[in-house]
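User: Fold this; tokens only.

Assistant: Input:
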Amino acid sequence: MLKGLIGKKVGMTQIFDATGSAIPVTLIEAGPCYVTQVRTVESEGYSAVQLGFAEAKPKRLTGGQLGHLKRNNLPPLRFLREFREKDPGVKEGDVLNVGEVFAVGEHIDVIGTSKGKGFAGAMKRYHFRGGPATHGQSDRQRSPGSRGSGTTPGRVYKGARGPGHMGHDRVTTQNLVVALVDAERNLLGVRGSVPGPKGGLVVIKGARKQ
């Protein structure tokens, strides 16, 4: 069975277990997701399932996108994501809900886009130590310091860590434990934090490293 859904981050809260201990959880509105396409080795050269999530107004989609969904009489869907699966056990047009795919106690990976922080210095971005606070300097405390290396090579190598755009990257949080499954409200509660802001799109998969 396919272990994957597309969802939207709702926010964080806490739940209590049988002993009364508080468990911090992130709530995700997971599904319902439509199976928009099943890729096979014979036709596409690999096995995968394409899921669609979040209904939208038809005018928000292109003609090609609408035609792709209309093949299986599906509504206009805003997000399409692909899941590699050798034996998915689903067919085009099926609807997947959180109660069918995940159960409490399972381990999952959540992929999202981290919060954008804008332009950040080297100390915030890469946790550099900064310069000394004494010995005559008064304005270089948060500077990354020297980066060059003289005549040879006479330049800064590509990929050197320094100030720049921080955040808004694809991030995967691995091995989160499912603490809550609310099939009626399509809610999935996972123990711990999930990348991205409230309302951000996330992709939920079965954990690769257990």
